[in-house]
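Support request, please re-run this one:
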Amino acid sequence: MVTNYLEQFQLDVLPEQAIDFLRLEHFSPGDVICAQGDEAGHLRFHVKGKIRVSHTSVSGKRLVLSFKYPLDLIGDIEYVRRTPYLNTVEAVTDVEMLVIRFDDLARHATDAVPWLHYLLEEITRKFELKSQSLSFNLFYPVEVRLASYVLSMTPDDPSLGSTVDDLNDIADLIGTSYRHVNRTLRRFVEKGYIERDRRRITIVDREGLLEVVGESIYE
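Re-run finished. Output below.
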């Protein structure tokens, strides 16, 4: 499976000596992949499933930063800076990751120019996406942010979760309250954009949601 994932995601930027140290890890829904503040020692290539990235403030409030799908790197900033994990990463679905120890990667890839270019591009992309996310939450109303979130999270399956925990995560991610998310979802139901029960939100009029959003799709 390691070889299959290397081919699928074109990870030949890694030197062969480093590839020999990669191993495949499996996580079940709810598993903590890495915890904020823990000592970082592994770089992970997220190759299957959905993960949630969150940060807990000094006061104990959790902020959901993003949901991610393959391919993504976990531990790249920590690898470069040799710091503890900045955020907590949890599996939302069944997840698989290719993992390599920092020490093995540094020993075999420190001077590998293709790998260093790849690492720089990935870190730069993360900061760019974070900047776009902050701007989106500042400049667009909740109706647009929520419609955009629902669309971006349902590229293949028209449904997503509607439990209290799910809605709290959505509220944290788009920068509003649970109650505001609830009210906005009720308006979407009234307009015929979605159907909703206690566990699922299902899109029934994707074009209607796209009209709400325009071109401002949240990722």
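The chain has two domains: 2-136, 140-213. The mean pLDDT is 86.
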